[in-house]
Each structure stands twice: as structure tokens, then as C-alpha cells.
Design a protein that fits this description.
The structure holds three protein chains of three kinds. Chain A is an all-alpha fold. Chain A has 23 helices and four strands. Chain A is globular. Chain B is mainly α. Chain B has a single domain, classed as Helix Hairpins (Orthogonal Bundle). The mean pLDDT of chain B is 83. By secondary structure, chain C is mainly alpha-helical. A two-stranded antiparallel sheet of chain C has the order 1-2. The longest helix of chain C has 32 residues. Chain C is globular, with a radius of gyration of 21 Å. Classes of the chains: A mainly alpha, B mainly alpha, C mainly alpha.
């Protein structure tokens, strides 16, 4: 049987099996899901090549599935990452009820994502897209927080996204007669400019919703933080990347054939680049003021996706490469961070950063994973985040997008703030009494986190490992050949940055510092508890805040207050309420009086007869 | 009397009264608040429609549409038969109308028992 | 016994009238006989559908030896056959569902099944008959059975709903009767094929007037806005299997007759636009009204009306693909809405109130029921990979082919509203805080069985629509081929 179909079937069967096995023993449920995903991953890495394809006719429509270099990047990411997450999930989800339900939907999401990247036509893309949507909806509402409101909001936005794709699909079908993605690429130049705009915008709305681009992002923070953390890492790490996956196709392959105004790229791309930049800045600001670690990460995720969208929208070789590189790396570090928060939540029962503190001694491995991921997130060498950011800034500068560079700098500087807060709030700072007996998470949870942290290090030193598939993918998208090298980054001005020399420099400094602290300076240090606060002779009053964790960034919050006043959420809620009261008004038509209904009938008949000429002839 | 005029008067009378019945019935259905009166209105509408049916099938001086010896003889003499189809239809329609009225009245009784009123504008516990 | 379409009408009617007598012999017979009859009719459907598919010709049965256009004839074509088979299939499942249905206890069981069999007779007869007055008669049989079934529980609201239904339904029958009368004066026949053949001789003004009367009368049965005031009440107050029956049989018969009149009898192009416009209005108002409903069954009722609006839109587009999509949607609607009514009824039954709020967390007690309801909800809003998706897709594609993109956009926007209210219920079912109420009424085995069958059909068609599309394609072709209908019916016996 065809390997592509086999992968989908394995994942589906894994989901159904883990649902059924949950009735026997809940532990089996998670194990089955893990095993099925690993099996699919093995099959994917060993058994599929670009030659595999699967054409079929369903419901009278010619559909096609296959794999190419571009989708391979995402496929590898999905299966590799979700295998690790499912391993983590076995311990994380232990003891919760309705595990079968959880794993069924988890596996359906993974299957749907694989389906999306395999799809070579829009109908199967849409089918898998919607499966992904509803399965993730069912997980968002799984914990029963907030009475399903969050889930509904997520579903509304997803429906807007899904249906705009459907509208684009039926339009394409009417215009071109087929729904193959390759046909859209080749026919796109034949559309009128309005049609190009319409199809472009519709598809970008679809993918923008999943990638949480402003102003379609409002569902994301709560939906991310309401799901169980093992799923959130997939949600933010992979599901959002499906938006990026689609945007890549639309922005690069499809728009390459768009009508151009002079030498500019298609104007939608420019708009999108700006939306990405605004998303990056705003989400970063929001992330800084969060006190809940989950929400901090959720907003941070949205911000990072903003960068990636920006990179894709700018559309030069370098920027696309940077965006895709960031996309992969973001999945790894943000996924790890969500897993870290999950581990913390499981061991302590809270994710509130004002309550947590000093877990570094209790959960050292978790801290290590968090530290490395945070460094990668902040874009500091020698970890992978640095490489991505380097290329990203360079691409913006080279292509003369100076304002975008300013926005990007602004948000990545602000990102340092929340990075620090995350580390400090959870792992450093003052020790709280109630967390005295906290233990390290079980090994099955630690191993995936540490493994991914290690990957970040590897990609930081040998970025070429990622450049290779990305370059192949970009060729598929139609960007021509892309030069890359295993360890050397070079830029347009002839500068070369060798990651090897960075790593050796940083490594040397690190070892020297370590030697200094550990050996030479050892005798001069003494151990103090974190509660040992000196107040320089002044006696603190009751209302003076002595824990740093509360009001961490008060001045900053005050500074950005005017920007935060009116959120998009506010407008959407008003729109929703307005519509609901309008609906409520409309249904008063059904007065409940049978005689009124009879009157409607007669009046309707009379109107029809009076205007019969206009209506029927 | 002039037969054409006579015909006209008859047909105007029959058609007019049929349409009049329908309108009266509609009036009762749309304006009267009492459930029983509404049911009566429905019956009156039915009666009007039935009358209309009969009127359509009628031919002046026509004979009964029966294939008896006398009937065939009359037809052979050039006398037209009255169209039998509307009459058959009316019979069916009357039976149906009877059934509907019976159900309606039983519902009226039940409504009255539950609501202690027979005013249709007071019975609206199901709305919106 | 030779299998013929007459059995569809004769057997249920016979059963309905024999049941009071047989009840004297053995009470259990009352429950069993409808099942035997329906199962046999299912078998008849299979045989006849096979025959019709093989020959490609409709089976035309003349009654009492009178040839068309004088006698009444039954036409079992690929179109009517498809609808009739669907109806019989659904009726069988509803019978299984309501077998030993707790609330239909011994004494009313007899009345329930008599009315149910009459309803089956009526709605199947509407589809099969080739005579316009006969269609009216079957319509009335259906209607009288429906009025009584709506108020079956003898409670306050049931009677109210029944009376409203009766009031509006009587007006519908009056208009239809008037239309038939006027038509008869113009063309002098009641046979639909003959009427269609002679329609061009009718003066335009008269033709439009007759059409309007038909549209008003039949629009009431097809739940078209603003003629559908009775529908939410009737759906929500009738016993749940009856709610399913309305969705699966009665409305289908109403829509069928409307479509037959517009597509076969008349040749007025404006009627198609009329269908689209009224369909849109019906869809919008119904879905909006459903949004704020607190009563689950009433919400399902409005959703049902909305779906009928969608069907009308699709028929109004009028191309082959659109008619195909509309028939597919009718099929889906029958199956999905029945599943929703059936599973929803158990939630309502086991909660303290009919309110959606009272359903909070009830899916935890009935995980399987919750699962079935969710499948229904996902399918009806048109999410893949459930069957509802395909019909929606085909209709939208057909609309886009006619470059009605605005229409597509409207439908999709309204679908978002639909998603909101259905998903609200699904989220509430599973994830609300459960109310402390003991499990009282478990579904019967029959209940589980029929709901499972429906869910399996939904998934099967969702994953592989081609098992059904062949039938529907042929049905759509048959409906659109007016000339063949006329010549087939009139050539019998010549």
C-alpha cells in the first residue's frame, strides 16, 4: 500500500485504538498513541520520498495527495515533535479522566496535519483542515474551563477561516474546473486583479487565523492556555505552523504569478508583512504583562508567529529561509517551553508566576530545558534562535524594509523582558513554603524536554542541517536554488559568521567563567536563603512589596498602557453582543399567536399576487 | 328572461357567493379570537371552495354524468354531461374537511381544559 | 405476489386500519405489525430501485385499470424511488427507535402506530402519485396524522402546537385546493404529466396566479418563511420520534411537491429566482432565531427550517449539479436531523428541564449519546469528514458555477452562526458542570440500534460519498428531464 495513505491510516487507527484501549486501562491509551506516532514517524523518515503520490476520485472530484520538499519539512517536524510530546504526555496526563477522548482527538489532529501537508488539492486540504479544527476544538474544551466560551471563540474564528477557504475553493472550481494547488499556481496569472485579490485575501484569512495574525488572533491566548499543556505545545508548535505552511504556498508560489504594480510585490504581501510586524510588537507587549506562565507563552507564540509571517510576506530568498528556519526552531523551543510549564503545573499545581519561585533546585533538568529554550527564544548565540534572527534582520535590511526592522527590533527587545520574567518567576527568585516538597518531573517527561533542548543546540551550531531541507523546500515553492553552508552564515555585505567560531568563543568564555566560579572563587561564596532580604537599615512597612514576582514590570506596564486600552477582543465582543441582540429581535417574528401566523400567510399571498408580474415574469 | 343574462346572473351569484363564503371564513380566521369561531371560519372557507368546485363543473341543462341508458340517449341527442370530476373531488374534499374539523375541535377542547380560555391570543406559551 | 409500487400505499394503510382489530387479539401485534410492513417495504424499495436502475425507465402503475390521463397512476422513477426509499428507510429506523419507547406506553401505542402508519402512507403517497388531486389527498392524510401526533402527549403545549399547525395547515390545503381547481378549469385534467404537456396553453396571468396559490400552499408544508410559524412549535412539542419523522418524511414530502410543481408542472423561470430568494430569507431568519434558543428541541426545529431554506436555494439554482446537491442535502438532512432529534430527546428526557442549560455535563453520563449527538452536530453544520460536508460543497460549487458568489458568501456566513449554536450545545454537553441527577431513562436497545445505524451512515457517506452519489445523480437527472416524465407517463397502455 502507498506509504502516504499508510501513515494517515496508522495515525487514525492509533487514535481509535487508544480510544478503545482506554476502556481497558487508561495507561494503554497514551502508550498506543505514542507507539502509533512513532511508527508513522519511522515510516515517514524511511519510507516516503517525493515520488510517492496517491491520486483518487472522491465524490466526483479528482483529488491528489503527495509529498514534496516543502511539505517534507513540515511533515518531519509534525511527526518528530509529536512523538516526543506524546511520550511526555503519558506521564503528564496520567490520572485524568476521559483519556481515550483526549488521545483520540490528539491523534486526529496529528493525522489531519499530516493530511494537510500531503494534500495537493484544496478539497482534501480543506477536509483535513476542518478535521484539525474540530479535533483541536474538542481538546480546547476538554478541561471544562470557562464554560466553553473559549472553545466557541476559537471555533468561530476557525469557521471564518475555514469558510473563506471554501469560498475560494468553489470560486477556483468554477473558474478553472480543478482544485489542484498546482493548477491554482499556474492559472493565477490568468485571473483579473480583483479575482487575484479576492482569492489571495480569502486564503490568507484561512491561514492567518491559524497562524494567529492580527486581527484574527484573539482566540489564541485563551485557547492555548486552556488546553492541557502537552497538547498546547502541539497547538502552538504545529497547528499554527499549518497556517505558515499554507501562507508559504500562497505568498510565494501563488503570488509569484500575480499581477504586479511596477517592481513591487503583490500589495497584499506588503499589508501582511505589516500585520505580522504589528502582531509581533503587540503580542510581545501583552506577553510582558502576563502573570500566568501559560498565557505569557501563548502571547509570545503569537508574537513569534508574527515574525515568521513577516519573513514570508517580505518574500526574498533570505527572508523566506529565515522564516522557515524560525518556524522550525520556534516549534522546538516554544514546544519545549510549554512542556516545561506543563511539568511545573503537574508538580506544583499552578502556573502563576507570582506564586511560583526557586524551582531551580527542585527541578534542575526542567530548568535546564527551559533555560536553553529561553536563550534560543531570545536569539542569543550559540543556540538556533540566533541563526534565525540573524538571517531575519539581515533579510529585512537588505530588502530595504527599514520600518519593519525597527518594529522587529522593538519587539525582540521587549521579548527579553518576558524571557527573563519567565525564568525568574518560575525557577529563580524566592522560595515559597508551599513548594518545599516539589520533586522533579518523571523521566518520560524530562527526556523529551532535554532532547529538544539539545536539538536547539545542534541546530545552533550546525544550522546547515536545517538549511538543507529548507533550501529544497524553497526550490519546490519556486524560489530557485538557494545557497547555504553547514556552519557559515554570510550576508550581503560580505561578512561571514562562522557558528563554529561563535561556539568556540562562547564555549571558552563559559568554561573560564565556570572555572572561576567553581574553583577559584569557591571559598569566597557563602550560601544565603532567598528570603534573606536586606533593607539597608530601613524597616519595611506592611504594604511594601518584598517579593519581586508581583508587579514585576510595573513601570513598563504603565508605559504601554495607552496602547493596551482598547483590545481587538473588546471590539469583537461588542460585535458579538450586538449580533446576538439583533438575532433576538428577529425571532420575535414568531409571536406565538397562531392567528398572527395565519395573517402572515394571507399577507404573503396577497403580496405575491400584487407583485406577481415583478416576481415571476 | 334572456337566457344569456340568466346564465350570467346565476354564475355571478354562484361564484360570488362562493368567493363571499371564502372571504367570510377568512375574516373569521384572521379576526375572531375565539378558537371555535376560528374553526368555524375554516369550515366556511372549505364550504366556499367546495361550492366553487361544483360551480366550475356545472353546465346549464347538462345531465348527470352516469352511463345509464337514458344518459347515453341524452348525450346522443346533443345534451352535454356535467363534468363529473369536480363532484368527485368535492366529495373527497368534504371528507377531508370533516376529518380536519374533528381534529380541530378536539384540540380546542383540550386547549380549553389546559388554559381555561379559548381566546387564541391568550394561548401563546410557545413563542420565539 | 408481484412487487409493485402500490404496496407502498396499500400496506401501511391496511395495517393502520387493521391494527385496532388485531389489538384485540394481542397487544404486542400493534408494535410488531408496523415493523413487518416497513421491513417489507424496505425490501420492495431495494427490488424496485434495482429494477429501475437497470432499465433506466420508471415503473408506472395504473390504478383500477384506468390508463393515464384518466386514472390515477403511481410513478416510481429514479427520482421518486430515491425519495420513497429514503422515507421508508427512515420510517423503519424510527419504528425501531420508538419500539418500547418509554413514553409511548401501552394504551397510546395503538394510536401512535395507527397515526404513524397513516403518516407514512401519506408522505410516501405524495411522492409516488402522478395525479395532482391525489397528491392533495395524500398531503391531507399526512397533515391530519401530523396534527394528531404533534399533540400526542395531551399536554398543554402539545395541544397548542397542534392547533397552530392545524390552523396554518388548513389554509395550506385551501390554497392547494383552489390552485387545483383553477388548474383543472384551464387544462381539464388532473394528471400531472398531462398538465405539464398542456401548460403552455394556459394564459400567463392565470398561470402565475395558480402558481402563486401552489407556492403558498406548498410553501407552508415546505416550511418556507414567512409561512413556517407552525414549524418550531410542532417540532418541539411532538414526541421525539415524531420530530424525527417530520424532518425525515413530512417536510420531504412538502419539498417534493413544491419542486414537482415548479420543475414539472410549470415553466415559469421567475419561480426559480423566487425559490432562491425565499430560501435565503428562510435560511437566515431560521438560523438567527436558532441562535438564542434555550430549548434544545426548538433549536433543532429552527435549524431544520434553515436547512430546508438551504434546500430551496439549491433547487432554485436549478442546474443539474445544484439539484443533485439539493437532493443530497435532503438525504443528509433526513438522516442527520433524525439522529439529532433522537439523541437530543434522551438528553431532554433525562434532564430537569427542556433547557439547554439543564443539559450541562449530561454527556458525561451518556458518553455514547453525547458522541452520537456530536456526530450529528458536526455533520449538520457541514464539517468534513461527515456526510453534511459533501452536500454543502456540491451546492456551493453549483452556485459558484452560476457565478453567484454573493450567495455562497451569505450561506457561509450563516453557517458560522449555525456552528456557534451547535458547538455551544456540544461544549455544554461534555464540559459543563454536571447536574446531580440520577440516570433514570436509558435508551432502549432499539434506540441504540437505530441511532448507531444513522451515525454509521453519516460516517460512511462522509468518508466515501460515492456509495450514494450515483443514485442521487440519476435522481437529479430524472427530475430535470421533464419531457421524459411526460412521455413515460402518457405512453403507458398505448
Amino acid at each position: 500500500m502507498n506509504n502516504i495513505v499508510l501513515i494517515i491510516l496508522i495515525l487514525l487507527a492509533g487514535g481509535v485504538l487508544s480510544f478503545l484501549l482506554n476502556q481497558i486501562k487508561p495507561l494503554l491509551s497514551g502508550v498506543t498513541a505514542f507507539v502509533a506516532t512513532v511508527a508513522a514517524a519511522v515510516l515517514f523518515f524511511t519510507g516516503t520520498g517525493t515520488a510517492d503520490n496517491f491520486d483518487f476520485v472522491l465524490g466526483g472530484m479528482h483529488l491528489s495527495m503527495g509529498i514534496n520538499g516543502y511539505s517534507w519539512i513540515f511533515g518531519a517536524l509534525i511527526l518528530g515533535f509529536s512523538s516526543l510530546v506524546l511520550l511526555y504526555s503519558i506521564s503528564y496526563m496520567k490520572g485524568r479522566d476521559r483519556l481515550g477522548y483526549f488521545y483520540l482527538n490528539f491523534m486526529l489532529s496529528i493525522m489531519a496535519m499530516m493530511g494537510i501537508i500531503f494534500s495537493r488539492d484544496f478539497i482534501s486540504l480543506f477536509i483535513f483542515w476542518e478535521i484539525m479544527t474540530w479535533s483541536s476544538f474538542l481538546i480546547v474544551v476538554y478541561q471544562g474551563l470557562s464554560e466553553g466560551r473559549v472553545g466557541i471563540k476559537y471555533m468561530i474564528f476557525s469557521a471564518v477561516g475555514g469558510y473563506s477557504m471554501l469560498l475560494a475553493i468553489v470560486f477556483m472550481k468554477a473558474q478553472m474546473g480543478t482544485v489542484l494547488i498546482s493548477d491554482l499556481v499556474s492559472h493565477f496569472s490568468g485571473f483579473a486583479i480583483q479575482q487575484q485579490t479576492m482569492v489571495g485575501i480569502l486564503l490568507l484569512i484561512t491561514f492567518g487565523v491559524k497562524a494567529a495574525v492580527m486581527p484574527l488572533h484573539v482566540w489564541a491566548p485563551r485557547a492555548y492556555s486552556d488546553s492541557p499543556m502537552s497538547y498546547t505545545s502541539v497547538f502552538s508548535g504545529l497547528l499554527s505552523k499549518m497556517g505558515i505552511f499554507g501562507m508559504g504556498i500562497v505568498l510565494i508560489s501563488v503570488f509569484a504569478n500575480s499581477s504586479t504594480f511596477g517592481t513591487n510585490t503583490f500589495y497584499i504581501s506588503n499589508v501582511l508583512a505589516w500585520l505580522g510586524a504589528i502582531t509581533g510588537v503587540m503580542a510581545t507587549f501583552y506577553a510582558v504583562i502576563q502573570t500566568d506562565a501559560k498565557k505569557l507563552l501563548a502571547y509570545s507564540s503569537i508574537g513569534q508567529l508574527g515574525y515568521i509571517v513577516m519573513g514570508l510576506a517580505v518574500g526574498t530568498k533570505l527572508s523566506v529561509m529565515a522564516a522557515l528556519f524560525l518556524a522550525v526552531v520556534h516549534t522546538i523551543f516554544k514546544g519545549t517551553l510549554f512542556l516545561v510549564v506543563g511539568a511545573v503545573e503537574r508538580q506544583t499545581g499552578t502556573t502563576d508566576m507570582t506564586k511560583l519561585g526557586a524551582l531551580i533546585r527542585k527541578m534542575p533538568w526542567t530548568f535546564l530545558a527551559a533555560l536553553i529554550s529561553i536563550i534560543a527564544l531570545a536569539g542569543i548565540p550559540p543556540l538556533a534562535g540566533f541563526v534565525g534572527k540573524w538571517m531575519f534582520y539581515e533579510s529585512l535590511i537588505v530588502s530595504d524594509h527599514y520600518f519593519l526592522v525597527i518594529m522587529a527590533f522593538l519587539s525582540s527587545t521587549a521579548a527579553f523582558l518576558y524571557c527573563y520574567r519567565f525564568l525568574f518567576g518560575i525557577f529563580l527568585g524566592q522560595e515559597e513554603k508551599e513548594f518545599e516538597n516539589v520533586k522533579e518531573a518523571p523521566a518520560t517527561m524530562v527526556i523529551p524536554m532535554v532532547l529538544m533542548a539539545a536539538l536547539l543546540f545542534v541546530f545552533g551550531v550546525f544550522p546547515g542541517l536545517l538549511f538543507d531541507p529548507i533550501a529544497k523546500g524553497m526550490e519546490v515553492l519556486g524560489m530557485g536554488t538557494v545557497d547555504w553552508s553547514m556552519t557559515v552564515l554570510s550576508n550581503g555585505w560580505g561578512d561571514h559568521v562562522d557558528t563554529m567560531s561563535i561556539i568556540s568563543a562562547i564555549g571558552t568564555i563559559f568554561i573560564l567563567a565556570f572555572i572561576y566560579l567553581a574553583l577559584w572563587n569557591r571559598k569566597r561564596t557563602r550560601y544565603v536563603t532567598t528570603k534573606d532580604i536586606h533593607t539597608s537599615g530601613e524597616i519595611p512597612t506592611e504594604n511594601e512589596n518584598l517579593t519581586y514576582a508581583v508587579d514585576f514590570y510595573k513601570p513598563f506596564e504603565r508605559a504601554i498602557e495607552p496602547v493596551m486600552k482598547r483590545t481587538m477582543d473588546f471590539y469583537y465582543n461588542h460585535l458579538g453582543e450586538g449580533l446576538e441582540s439583533f438575532f433576538n429581535f428577529l425571532r420575535r417574528f414568531y409571536t406565538g399567536n397562531g392567528q398572527t401566523y395565519a395573517l402572515y400567510v394571507i399577507v404573503f399571498l396577497v403580496i405575491l399576487i400584487l407583485f406577481s408580474k415583478q416576481i415571476f415574469l | 328572461m334572456d337566457p344569456i343574462l340568466y346564465n350570467k346572473i346565476i354564475s355571478v351569484g354562484v361564484y360570488g357567493s362562493a368567493i363571499g363564503l371564502i372571504l367570510i371564513g377568512l375574516y373569521a380566521v384572521l379576526v375572531k379570537k375565539h378558537l371555535t369561531k376560528i374553526v368555524i371560519g375554516l369550515s366556511i372557507i372549505d364550504a366556499g371552495v367546495h361550492l366553487l368546485f361544483i360551480a366550475v363543473g356545472f353546465i346549464k341543462g347538462g345531465t348527470a354524468p352516469i352511463f345509464s341508458e337514458k344518459g347515453i340517449e341524452l348525450v346522443n341527442q346533443g345534451t352535454a354531461m356535467v363534468d363529473p370530476v369536480p363532484q368527485a373531488l368535492v366529495l373527497t374534499a368534504i371528507v377531508i374537511g370533516f376529518g380536519v374539523t374533528a381534529v380541530a375541535l378536539s384540540l380546542v377542547i383540550r386547549l380549553y381544559r389546559h388554559h381555561h380560555t379559548a381566546r387564541i391570543d391568550h394561548i401563546k406559551s410557545l413563542k420565539w | 405476489m408481484v412487487i409493485s409500487p402500490v404496496h407502498y400505499i396499500a400496506l401501511p394503510l391496511l395495517a393502520a386500519f387493521l391494527m385496532p382489530l388485531l389489538a384485540k387479539v394481542n397487544r404486542e401485534l400493534v408494535r410488531i405489525i408496523p415493523g413487518v410492513v416497513l421491513t417489507y417495504l424496505l425490501f420492495v424499495s431495494v427490488v424496485l430501485m434495482q429494477r429501475v436502475t437497470e432499465t433506466g425507465q420508471p415503473i408506472i402503475e395504473t390504478l383500477a385499470g384506468w390508463q393515464a390521463p384518466w386514472g390515477i397512476n403511481l410513478v416510481f422513477s429514479q427520482f421518486t424511488g430515491f425519495l420513497v426509499s429514503l422515507m421508508v428507510f427512515m420510517a423503519t429506523l424510527i419504528w425501531i427507535f420508538s419500539y418500547r419507547f418509554k413514553k409511548v406506553d401501552n394504551e397510546p401505542a395503538l394510536k401512535y402506530y395507527i397515526l404513524f402508519m397513516m403518516l407514512v402512507t401519506g408522505s410516501v403517497g405524495v411522492v409516488l402519485t402522478g395525479d395532482i388531486f391525489n397528491m392533495f389527498v395524500f398531503m391531507e392524510i399526512t397533515a391530519i396524522a401530523s396534527y394528531s401526533l404533534t399533540s400526542f402527549y395531551r399536554d398543554r403545549d402539545g395541544a397548542e402546537a397542534g392547533f397552530k399547525y392545524l390552523l396554518i395547515g388548513s389554509l395550506a390545503s385551501t390554497f392547494m385546493l383552489l390552485a387545483i381547481l383553477l388548474l383543472y378549469t384551464q387544462v381539464g385534467t388532473l394528471n400531472m404529466a398531462m398538465i405539464a404537456e398542456r401548460m403552455h396553453t394556459v394564459p400567463v396571468g392565470m398561470k402565475v396566479t395558480i402558481l402563486i396559490l401552489f407556492l403558498t400552499g406548498l410553501g407552508i408544508e415546505a416550511e418556507m418563511f414567512p409561512l413556517n410559524g407552525w414549524a418550531p412549535d410542532a417540532y418541539s412539542q411532538a414526541p421525539s420520534p415524531v420530530g424525527a419523522t417530520f424532518a425525515a418524511l413530512v417536510v420531504k414530502a412538502g419539498v417534493y411537491s413544491l419542486i414537482r410543481v415548479i420543475f414539472t408542472l410549470f415553466d415559469i423561470q421567475g419561480a426559480y429566482q423566487y425559490l432562491i430568494i425565499m430560501g435565503i430569507i428562510t435560511l437566515i431568519i431560521a438560523e438567527f432565531a436558532a441562535m438564542k434558543q434555550t430549548n434544545l428541541k426548538r433549536m433543532l426545529a429552527y435549524s431544520s427550517i434553515g436547512q430546508m431554506g438551504f434546500v430551496l436555494i439549491a433547487f432554485g439554482i436549478g442546474t443539474k449539479e445544484a439539484v443533485f446537491g439539493a437532493l443530497f442535502l435532503m438525504f443528509n438532512h433526513a438522516i442527520i436531523k433524525s439522529l439529532l432529534f433522537m439523541s437530543g430527546s434522551f438528553f431532554v428526557y433525562n434532564s430537569t428541564s427542556k433547557d439547554i442549560k439543564g443539559l450541562s455535563g449530561i454527556g458525561k453520563k451518556f458518553p455514547y449519546m453525547g458522541f452520537l449527538f456530536s456526530i450529528g452536530a458536526f455533520a449538520i453544520v457541514g464539517l468534513p469528514p461527515f456526510s453534511g460536508f459533501w452536500s454543502k460543497l456540491y451546492i456551493l460549487i453549483a452556485a459558484a458555477d452560476e457565478s453567484m458568489l454573493a450567495l455562497v458568501a451569505i450561506i457561509l456566513l450563516v453557517s458560522i452562526v449555525e456552528i456557534v449554536y451547535y458547538f455551544r450545545v456540544v461544549a455544554k454537553l461534555y464540559f459543563g458542570k454536571p447536574t446531580d441527577k440520577e440516570v433514570v431513562h436509558k435508551p432502549t436497545f432499539g434506540g441504540y440500534f437505530s441511532m448507531t445505524v444513522l451515525a454509521v451512515v453519516i460516517l460512511l457517506v462522509g468518508f466515501y460519498p460515492d456509495i450514494i452519489t450515483g443514485f442521487i445523480h440519476r435522481a437529479a437527472d430524472t427530475l430535470l428531464d421533464k419531457g421524459a416524465y411526460i412521455s413515460n407517463v402518457l405512453s403507458v397502455g398505448h
